[in-house]
Amino acid sequence: MNTSPLFGQLIVAIVTPMHADGEVDWPGLERLVTTCLEQGADGFVTTATTGESATLSDAEKIKVARVTKTLAGSSAKVILGGASNVTSHAVELVREGARAGVDGLLVVTPYYVKPTQTGILTHFRTVADATDLPVMLYDIPGRTGKPIAPETLIAASEHPNIVAVKDAKGDLAEVSRILNETDLLYYSGDDARTLPEMAIGGVGCVTVTGNIAAASYRALIDAVDANDLETARVYHGLLEPLVRATMTHVPGTVATKYLLRGLGRLGSDRVRLPLVGPTRDEIAAIESDVAAVHDVPGVDFSDFRPDRAATAEGALL
Predict the structure, then answer these.
(1) By the 8 A CB rule, do 235 and 254 touch?
(2) DSSP class per residue in 130-172
(3) Which of 12, 36, 78, 259 measures 20 to 30 Å from 42, CA to CA?
């Protein structure tokens, strides 16, 4: 396992398991983290988009991070997600995260308010000033409404605590420029682009599908590290239908929990409103993609047991 980059290379954006009543399933979280560790995860991002940060309380976010870090110990890094679009609130969260023992912070572009690039940069610097922990910036304009401009990334890289980017923008030309002009570490924030981004200098991924098949991402990353592009391409191809199943029909959290429940790894696929379980049509689309998943290390869909009644339209309302 190559853990030379600060946060490692294979980082799972862990879902937050919940019971049918919507309360956090702490034993379920422990089982899921343990499985990902056994399959080669270097780290975890907790309570970010995939972890349902929008509907978790601050106390829940900190407890999820603490539980995950207790299990990971020194073998894997834990990065606290769920920073706020309010700078003062984000500062509070990162300080609480530091007290909980996390190894780093994921700080997203302030969403909904759509600040200027000067505001975005000031937000990042203010949050980074509030901690000694390393910071990974999260560039996901599809959710925040604002990209982080290349000039903003270059300026942010001058802060000693800002060390990495989770890239969900999808502009590989821009990634190449930032890699040329800064020392920032780049992680693919889009599962389908893990191999392409690593091929131009990215160090790894922050993966949703890794909740299900961390072993496959481990194999892909290790192949890239060994300069074995042919093998990396094989794993990239094997993962493609699973990535499609998790990321294209419903929010990734919803599909991932549905699939983990069907595999027997979660007791419930409950999500909190305004997220809901997949409809019958969405289930059919997910399962159509899953039917094309074969020979993927870390997951065996031959034992998949979907419970349609629990996840049909309106079941969570």
Answers:
(1) no
(2) T-SS-EEEEE-HHHHS-PPPHHHHHHHTTSTTEEEEEE-S--H
(3) 259
Catalytic position from the list 63, 166, 186, 258: 166
Residues 6+ apart with CB under 8 A from 129: 159, 161
Could you tell me the pTM of the whole model? 0.95
Distances in Å between the Cα of 116 and the Cα atoms of 94, 195, 312 are 23, 32, 41
What tokens appear for 41 in the block?
A: 């995860």
Domain-by-domain residue ranges, the chain? 10-232
Closest CA to 138 of 177, 173, 190: 190
Query: Does residue 138 have an active-site annotation?
Result: yes
Alpha-carbon gap, residue 228 to 4, rounded angstroms: 19
Residue tagged active-site, from 61, 63, 69, 138: 138
Indicate the average pLDDT of the chain: 94
In degrees rounded to 5, what are phi and psi of residue 167? -100, 110
- Rounded to 10 degrees, the C-alpha dihedral 206/208/214/217 comes to -60
Residue 2 confidence (pLDDT) above 60: no
Q: Is 166 a catalytic residue?
A: yes
Residue in the structure block whose two tokens are 């192949």? 223
Per-residue pLDDT tens digits for 44-69: 999 999 999 999 999 999 999 999 99
Range 10-232: architecture per CATH: Alpha-Beta Barrel (3.20)
- Mean pLDDT within 176-184: 98
CA gap 81, 106 in Å, rounded? 5
What's the rounded Cα separation, in Å, for the pair 301 and 182?
Answer: 42
